[in-house]
Design goal:
Distance between the termini: 51 Å
Number of helices: 11
Low-confidence stretches: none
Largest sheet: none
Shape: elongated
Helix content: over 70%
Strand content: under 5%
Structural class: mainly alpha
Order of helices and strands: HHHHHHHHHHH
Oligomer: single chain
Radius of gyration: 24 Å
Protein name: DUF3159 domain-containing protein
């Protein structure tokens, strides 16, 4: 390799790294809903705790939180956007409303979400120990690699394992803060702490996931492989028909 070739090779590698990071950022944005998804996650709980702080009326606060969740879904439907993040928010809020109404305790509005967070944390950790890290199952289809990383891309599997550990431990740390407060703090204090902890742990987990995947080998596009195999099969059949003719 000549001295003229080296800068070109370096520049090509840098461009590939930038492309890989851009693809990873786009995939994470799609998988986790981006800024809009975060707003849809935070807004119902924020509205609930704000109204309850002002008038201490559980029913009004719960109905307002559910109404804004439904409005967010309606906006997405009208814009023909994906509704998975908004729908998950509606279900979470609906369960919270049911719990709070049944017990008459406003703090129970947050209990289903807390239990979900705990279950998700355990799922990240258990699946990673089992060799099938959950973040890989979530992001594999987004990267068009499906489960190819399990057997064909060990470097990527390792990155998914690191990311899943990060998600699991961060969510466990969040639960370690919230569950004691659920018992000890009053409803208003607890609600504001919970809202404050909605986004920062999520952003930290997403950042670490991006960091691990940006340094990992690129995904294997199994969809492109299938398309190439189908094209090759068609060409083989066409060649066979020409020979028979």
């Amino acid at each position: 390799m000549t001295s003229v070739d080296k800068p070109t090779t370096t520049n090509d590698q840098q461009q590939q790294d930038r492309d890989a990071k851009a693809v990873t950022e786009a995939a994470l944005f799609e998988a986790f809903g981006g800024v809009r998804g975060m707003v849809e996650t935070v807004l119902p709980g924020l509205l609930f705790v704000t109204i309850f702080t002002i008038n201490k009326d559980l029913h009004i606060a719960a109905i307002a939180a559910l109404a804004v969740s439904l409005a967010l879904v309606a906006v997405r439907l009208l814009r023909k956007d994906t509704v998975k993040h908004a729908f998950s928010g509606v279900f979470g809020v609906a369960f919270g409303v049911v719990f709070a109404m049944m017990t008459g305790n406003a703090k129970d509005f947050y209990l289903p979400g807390m239990l979900y967070t705990l279950g998700l944390a355990l799922a990240y950790i258990i699946t990673t120990i089992a060799g099938v890290p959950l973040i890989g199952l979530i992001l594999g289809p987004v990267f068009k690699e499906n489960l190819s990383w399990r057997t064909r891309n060990p470097g990527r599997k390792k990155a998914y394992a690191k990311a899943s550990w990060a998600w699991g431990l961060i969510l466990l740390a969040k639960c370690a803060i919230l569950f004691p407060l659920y018992w000890w703090a009053d409803t208003t204090q607890f609600g504001w702490v919970l809202v404050a902890l909605k986004i920062p742990p999520f952003l930290l987990a997403v950042y670490l996931t991006w960091l691990f995947l940006a340094k990992a080998p690129p995904p294997i596009d199994v969809f492109a492989e299938m398309e190439a195999e189908e094209l090759a099969e068609k060409e083989r059949k066409a060649a066979a028909q020409q020979r028979e003719a």
